[in-house]
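Subject: Predicted fold for 4-diphosphocytidyl-2-C-methyl-D-erythritol kinase, 275 residues

User T.R. writes:
Posting the sequence so we have a shared reference for the thread.
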Amino acid sequence: MRTIRQEPAPAKVNLALHVTGQRADGYHLLDSLVVFCDAGDVVTLTPGPLSLRLTGPFAQGLEADPDNLCLRAARLAGREAAITLEKNLPVASGIGGGSADAAAVLRALDAHPAHPETLGADVPVCLAGVPCRMQGVGEIVTPLPALAPLHLVLVNPGMGLSTPEVFRALTRRDNPPLPDRLPDLGTPEALLSFLTDCRNDLEAPAIALLPVIADCLAALQDAGARLARMSGSGATCFGLFADPQDAARAAREIGATHPDWWVVATGLAPAPAKG
Ligand SMILES: C[C@](O)(CO)[C@H](O)COP(=O)(O)OP(=O)(O)OC[C@H]1O[C@@H](n2ccc(N)nc2=O)[C@H](O)[C@@H]1O
Ligand SMILES: Nc1ncnc2c1ncn2[C@@H]1O[C@H](COP(=O)(O)OP(=O)(O)OP(=O)(O)O)[C@@H](O)[C@H]1O
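User M.O. replies:
I've generated the structure tokens; pasting them so everyone works from the same file.
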């Protein structure tokens, strides 16, 4: 690369996450609705040998070691760059931080490796960067038609959860998928009514491992969320609110009651620029 490239790495939210089976290699079959938020990490790439520098409020939760997904993404692409990762998202929190960072590095490099899912199950959907249905073990990604605007509050209790541990704690692995054909999700009422009938099958096992997740969900509900659910393998939970003002008010209220939690109000991210 010859120029400086800055790419947002938006937080991923699983509005619904149905675990429908398990493959012989242990990976789980998923059926999920995924969206991306304005809140996120930022990667900046400048010309130079491969390196990584960490900044931002959650930089201390990570090492700039060769396993960092930013460096693994650049190596998979066979490219060099001096990478700065502004880590604004809590680490190991169910909102795809590492996968979002890897996808942002690939976008900045304009690289299209054959198997991005080898970096992480969430990398293909993070590369799409638009609202999607995600199936298979994460490699089948279908962009959704028009989706109603969303006004979210994300809440993380400040404790990380290991994704494999949460999957291991599942008691049922053959839960029903989403309907084959999704209804029209273009109005807030239709989207909310559909999502109310959906689930995150990882929510119960995650709460069993980290009961404070139930407090995050209750705090979102008490602050007026129309729907409160956990994202991914947790521990981050999201609430859906009527408008941006209501989301901002709820975030202020929850943040004031729980100053040790990470709480942000956010809308949907714009689609990534085509490389
Ligand atoms: C649960 C989700 O957050 C839903 O979006 C993702 O599928 C997880 O994506 P990720 O963090 O990128 O996951 P990976 O780093 O590929 O996998 C971490 C671990 O999660 C488990 N895993 C992940 C994805 C999947 N479909 N089945 C699994 O069982 C496996 O134990 C795997 O070793
Ligand atoms: N750039 C990165 N950002 C975050 N975590 C990283 C990164 N690179 C490697 N990791 C490792 O990946 C693990 C999972 O972190 P990540 O934040 O991606 O999880 P997550 O938000 O639960 O992801 P998902 O929603 O995809 O399950 C961390 O424990 C961390 O050690």
